[in-house]
Amino acid sequence: MTAGRPLRLFSCNANRALAEEIAAWLDLPLSACEVGRFRDGEIQVRINESVRGADVFVLQPTCAPVNEHLMELLVTIDALRRASAARITAVIPYYGYARQDRKARARDPITAKLVANLITVAGADRVLTMDLHAGQIQGFFDIPVDHLLGVPILADYFAKKGLEDMVVVSPDVGGVTRARNLADRLDVPIAIIDKYRPEANVAQVMNVIGSVKNKRAILIDDIIDTAGTITQGAQALIDRGAIEVYACCTHAVLSPPAVERLTNSVFKEVVVTNTIPLAEEARIPLIKQLSVAPLFGQAIRNIHRNLSVSTLFD
């Protein structure tokens, strides 16, 4: 890649398929590493090639089972640090625990900050991630964070579909910036769903701000977890005269009963990326998966060459 430090790309077990895609895009072999378990369940990591003086990237989204995958990442980073890697970048396409980013009630933990501390103390020199649930999480780290955006990938897909009379819809007030970004790229208006959430993973749609009648609506969020919020939002849009409703997100968490809810919903199509691997039950015609490998590959190349990453946001 450069005349300086060699580049090495490692993968733990959370999303090896994406790591292989990125390695192929970079025209590099995926480095030799075994991440297994001792008989008592403790994580065992073996780095099977020299990394002394290397620029190392470790790909591991902290998706379900999040605690297992987080520990795999931490132990792998520690192994690489002790093996004298020159620089270690934690490539975390999906950052778990990101929704615990503040104290919503008395005595709540701020787990997103705790995880940032763990990754830093383990020995990571920088982090490369995508669509953090809360942008301020970048400030939880005391090391550089490169924050990629999934909206350009989603916008390119919908632009190529050639849909007419589109409107981009945010499922809540907090997602307006993301919806505006997609709407600007597609040159279409936006609408907002105003909802009341009585407790976690439970949402009640209250109102739709903006015109959706006779429109093809695209609901956008960063995460689809149990799909309760987004399926209720889709029905509200149909009830208010939308012709078709599409959903899109970067991170397809899809905790049960998400797939069942999406299958029984009014959605024409649900577009996600492969920051998280799809479970077998989620591999259905309704769900379209787009690859983030080229974007992460270019980001890794730019970081390795000490070039700007912000140019990839355009």
Which labels suit this protein?
alpha/beta, 314 residues, five-stranded parallel β-sheet
Brief characterization of the structure:
By secondary structure, this protein is α/β, with parallel strands linked by helices. Helices cover 29% and strands 27% of the residues. The chain has a 7-stranded mixed sheet. A 5-stranded parallel sheet has the order 1-4-5-6-7, sandwiched between helices.
What's the N-to-C terminus distance? Answer: 24 Å
| Helical content class | 25-40%
Which strands sit side by side, in order, in the main sheet?
10-9-8-11-12-13-14
Secondary-structure-based class equals alpha/beta
Number of E strands: 14
Global geometry: globular
Mean pLDDT: 95
The percent range for strand residues is 25-35%
Question: What features would you describe in this structure?
Answer:
The chain has 314 residues and is an alpha/beta fold. Helix content is 29%, strand content 27%. The chain is built from eight helices and 14 strands. It has helices at residues 16-26, 66-82, 111-122, 151-161, 176-186, 228-239, 258-263, 293-304, and strands spanning 7-11, 33-37, 43-47, 55-59, 87-92, 126-130, 145-148, 166-170, 190-199, 202-209, 216-224, 244-252, 269-273, 287-290. The strands form three sheets. A seven-stranded mixed β-sheet has the order 10-9-8-11-12-13-14. Strand 2 and strand 3 form a beta hairpin. Helix 1 (16-26) crosses helix 8, helix 2 packs parallel to helix 3 (111-122) and helix 4 crosses helix 5. The radius of gyration is 20 Å and the shape is globular. The protein starts with 6 loop residues before the first strand and ends in a 10-residue tail after the last helix. The relative contact order is 0.13. The model has no long low-confidence stretch (mean pLDDT 95).
